[in-house]
Amino acid sequence: MAECIFCKIAKKEVQSKIEYEDDNVLAINDVDPKAPVHILIVPKKHIPTLLGLKDEDKDLVYSVHKAAITIAQQKNLVDGFRVVVNCGPNAGQAVYHIHYHMLGGRKLEWPPG
């Protein structure tokens, strides 16, 4: 996707501070954080929404969880954290490249609002 900001970040065409990276995903700080720790875990493969995941993407899904675990340990999120993926306009998805919001560093309320 030529216009996708996350694809450009993954290809290093747009500079961003990378908090974590492996072969399948990278993690960057959210530009509009909703918690002291608000990191986006972004697959390098362009998939517009969660509904676009296929059986062949199981390693990618594992990499998302591995990234969340590693980041939680690095950020000392021992009291908990949340990982959220928005799918579609009614869920608040703003960028149509699947990405996971990792939030922590404070008590998170439910429902989030």
TrEMBL record:
Superkingdom of origin: Bacteria
Gene3D superfamilies documented for this protein: HIT-like
Protein name: Histidine triad nucleotide-binding protein
Species of origin: Candidatus Desantisbacteria bacterium CG_4_10_14_0_8_um_filter_48_22
PROSITE patterns: HIT_2
One of the record's GO molecular function terms: catalytic activity
Xref: InterPro entries: Histidine_triad_HIT, HIT-like, HIT-like_sf
Domain HIT: 5-113
Active site per the UniProt annotation: H99
Location of the motif Histidine triad motif: 97-101
SUPFAM superfamilies associated with the record: HIT-like
